[in-house]
């Protein structure tokens, strides 16, 4: 996987940007780029910079640390369904099961995401991995505004993700977690093989240590 015109790069010593290489048979179409920051023994970058107006989607298992990463590194730029749920939880009667108003929470979340996308601003979107249609939506929006879509993929062991769910006091059922494992497993395997979701210009693979080292997701001129 090579980078021809993407403006995504890792702003840190020891994280080389791969040189652009022309892609035969593709006119003005860049090949996507993969940066694997797993198992770097403390040498992971603290900052990733993307082009102004680009979109970033953060995917991984429930409990892998997506929300924590977005809150720490993309303050004010993140769109996370958990934030929408928290607002609705605070407004609903305490005894009302979440399942009753879950459809309204999802509707409110996607309405908020649509507003953010239509603003033209750079956005960092929380993705559970199973909603491929959301990634397709983001890819279309990036293309519409003439910008690029980037994938940050948290690759953590299932046990670590389960522990993360317990730490936050919210888990998913065994059935749902199995669906997430299959979906995220495909994303990781495809990325390692050089296949990214349609419309995605680059991917960054992160393990738990690399995610913890990342302090900022920034947008601006390369």
From TrEMBL:
InterPro entries: P-loop_NTPase (IPR027417). Gene3D superfamilies: P-loop containing nucleotide triphosphate hydrolases (3.40.50.300). This is AAA family ATPase. SUPFAM superfamilies: P-loop containing nucleoside triphosphate hydrolases.
């Amino acid at each position: 996987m090579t980078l021809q015109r993407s403006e995504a790069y890792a702003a840190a010593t020891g994280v080389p940007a791969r040189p652009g290489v022309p892609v035969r048979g593709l006119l003005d179409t860049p090949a996507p780029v993969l940066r694997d920051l797993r198992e770097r023994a403390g040498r992971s970058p603290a900052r990733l910079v993307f082009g102004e107006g680009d979109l970033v989607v953060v995917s991984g298992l429930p409990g892998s640390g997506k929300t924590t990463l977005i809150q720490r590194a993309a303050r004010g730029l993140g769109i996370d369904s958990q934030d929408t749920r928290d607002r609705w939880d605070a407004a609903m009667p305490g005894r009302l099961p979440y399942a009753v108003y879950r459809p309204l929470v999802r509707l409110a979340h996607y309405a908020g995401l649509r507003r953010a996308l239509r603003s033209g601003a750079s956005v960092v979107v929380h993705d559970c991995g199973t909603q491929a249609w959301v990634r397709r939506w983001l890819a279309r929006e990036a293309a519409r505004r003439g910008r690029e879509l980037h994938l940050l993929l948290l690759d953590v062991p299932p046990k670590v993700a389960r522990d993360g769910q317990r730490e936050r006091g919210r888990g998913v059922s065994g059935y749902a977690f199995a669906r997430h494992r299959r979906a995220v497993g495909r994303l990781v395997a495809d990325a390692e093989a050089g296949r990214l979701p349609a419309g995605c210009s680059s991917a960054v693979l992160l393990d738990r240590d690399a995610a913890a080292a990342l302090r900022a997701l920034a947008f601006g001129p390369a």
